[in-house]
Amino acid sequence: MRSLSISAFACSALLSLNALAADADSQQHAAAQADPSLHCPAATTQAITDASTRMVLKALVDPLQASDRTSLFEQYLATPVASPNSARQVASSHARVVLAAEHIRAGRHEQARQVLAQVDLASTVAVDAALLMAESWRLQGDDRQSQAWLVRVAQRYSSDPRALEGLLLSARDLAASGKVR
Predict the structure, then answer these.
(1) Alpha-carbon distance 76 to 50, whole Å?
(2) DSSP string computed for 53-111
(3) pLDDT at residue 86 in the model
(4) Would you state the pLDDT for residue 40?
(5) pLDDT digits over 30-80, tens only?
């Protein structure tokens, strides 16, 4: 099942990138075309992205279309990002977070942390990556490391409500378990 919010997010992110990369004339021409898998103009996935980036974006938006997302993401991430602020960098950051989540789900916490450590701190998914890092430690039973990550997230991204929420929820869980009073 497709998540409309993820699809809308991916489309708006690609539209923003396209606006930065394309001039006004090519945007008007591209608006006439459509990419039905992402429900947004084709230019957002074709004018500024290569074929592998489009495949990764589609796998992020609709996981049912990619039979083996883990290997797709690992192959994609093996090629370094050449230019900052590119569609490839955005797709790579998102792919790293999803790949790390899949590693965590499979119990490969160390692999997940290695992937998460490569997410750019200025990325739009940096908070998600840091919260996943804390969660990987918590799932391994290391509450001290988990709390340390949550504090780092709250300090670095203090304007993001998810950072504070993660810290507060963790404190509540620790108090409920009797580990903290």
Answers:
(1) 11
(2) HHHHHHHHH-GGG-TTHHHHHHHHHTSPP-STTSHHHHHHHHHHHHHHHHHHHTT-HHH
(3) 77
(4) 53
(5) 433 444 554 555 444 445 567 888 888 888 887 766 568 888 898 888 888
Give me 64's structure tokens.
Answer: 């049912």
If residue 46 lies in a helix (H) or strand (E), which one and from where to where? helix 43-46
Report, in angstroms and rounded to the nearest whole number, the Rg of the chain calculated over CA atoms.
18
Q: Are 139 and 130 in contact (CB under 8 A)?
A: no
**pLDDT tens-digit map of 145-154:** 999 999 999 9
Amino acid at 107: G
The torsion angles phi and psi of 148, rounded to 5 degrees, stand at: -60, -40
Tokens 């993660």 sit at which residue?
166
Query: Hey, what amino acid is at 168?
Result: L
Mean pLDDT of the chain: 75
Q: Are 148 and 138 in contact (CB under 8 A)?
A: no
Size (the chain), residues = 181
